[in-house]
Amino acid sequence: MKPAADKRPAKTRITPIPSRITFSNRVDHFLARWGINRSGHSVTPGLYALGSPTPDSPVFVTANYTLSFDGLRSALTGLDGYILVLDTKAINVWCASGKGTFGTHELVFRIETTGLKDIVRHRVLILPQLGASGVSAHEVKKRSGFRVEYGPVRAKDLPEYVKTHQATSEMRRVRFTWRDRLILIPVELVYILLPMLILAGILYFVNGVSGSLGVVASTLTGVVLFPILLPWIPTRNFSTKGFILGGIPALVFALTKFLSGSNATIFLRAGWALIYLLAMPAWTAFLTLNFTGSTPFTSRSGVKHEIYTYVPRMAWMVGGSLVLTIALILIRVFRGAG
Amino acid sequence: MKSAYDTNTLRYNPKLCTGCRMCSIVCPHGVFIQNGKKASLDHPERCMECGACELNCPPHAISVESGVGCATAMIFAALTGKKEPTCCSESKASCC
Q1: Parts of chain A with a pLDDT under 70
Q2: Fewer CB within 10 Å: C terminus or N terminus of chain B?
Q3: Are the beta carbons of A285 and A246 closer than 8 angstroms?
């Protein structure tokens, strides 16, 4: 289908953009990584000129999230080309394509509104590979006349890619390196901070300082240690990984509880220890299960399977520790009274 | 050992394949490889159900129930009985 001629904009605006990343860009990236001003890290959608492009220069497509846009333009240092920025509501390419905002419809719309047909002579667009879950290449071709070419997963491989227009199988594979995992920790911390403090506050009145410390330890195990150690924790399910890793601080707390407080009977001390052994790994596992959403390899049906298998177990463990806590407090009260 | 990720919803009908290679290009986990004139499933267990192959397969030889697999959204949906959102990125910056 050819777009009607009268739909074409009278004047096209092409914004020149350098490939250099400035200090204020870096501040913006830092804030984005900490989840501060979540939807504020956006770039105006439209067409940008990198270097001095000619009608034969390549066109790269990206999302209007500063980390995506800046990652692309800095990777293209020294190259002349156009960058077509889609409106993904300040969400990165991978998330936006899963949602469909980095999609066929928006791409075709953006090609038309920028008047790209009159700016470049060729009919080729280079898209990031991870945009493919939102874009149908043959649909775009049918609707706009442009052929979609999926470039490598990572922008840093683009200079190599544009030479041959062939990506190696290594360039085509998504990775989840320690660097990728580490960079997720700040935002995970920011989001869990308030629930953690509330929970720690409540448990202070029930179990004292060790109760609060238990919450902090099992939370940090789930959101800081877990992403770092992910590939080395046994089992493939995230919940079981969480139970295993969360079991370590739980064991420390339980042993401390069991070995201290010598004035209580062995049964009471074992009871208090058991509370930690039940609640802490369950909480850590709940957090690690939620981390599946941040990884680039867990499938929806797998996560669903995990939820139905393990969330009830987590609930039973937390419920069990609550019942035990109440029982032990009652025993303490009656003993104290008697 | 059995895991929740051993099975998935990825289905491929080689009879419909025209050998355009798009599936092996778009898949970030190397699930498909080009085997002569047709694509073949090399590592179906690696599939994360992103749906890129289905969307970019002109003859509709591939189907997969795609979704982002965000546990937070799915637990919420299971508890409230509401339809799960397609992405939780509004509430959680690092998610999906």
Answers
A1: 1-11, 261-263, 336-338
A2: N
A3: yes
A55 DSSP assignment: T
Phi and psi torsions of A14, nearest 5°: -115, 120
**Considering CB atoms only, which of B5, B70, B71 is closest to A236?**
B5
pTM score, whole prediction = 0.89
To the nearest whole Å, the CA of B4 is away from the closest chain A CA by 5
How high is the pLDDT of residue A260? 84
At CB < 8 Å, which residues of chain B contact A?
Answer: 1, 3-5, 7-9, 22, 25-30, 46-52, 55-56, 58, 65-75, 78, 86-89, 92-96
The answer to whether the Cα torsion of B27, B33, B36, B37 is positive or negative is: negative
Q: Interface pTM (ipTM) of the complex? A: 0.87
Which residues of chain A have a CB within 8 Å of the CB of B7?
A: 301
DSSP string, B11-67: EE-GGG-----HHHHH-TT--EEEETTEEEES-GGG-----HHHHT-TT--EE----
Instruction: Give pLDDT tens digits for A40-67.
Output: 999 999 999 999 999 999 999 999 999 9
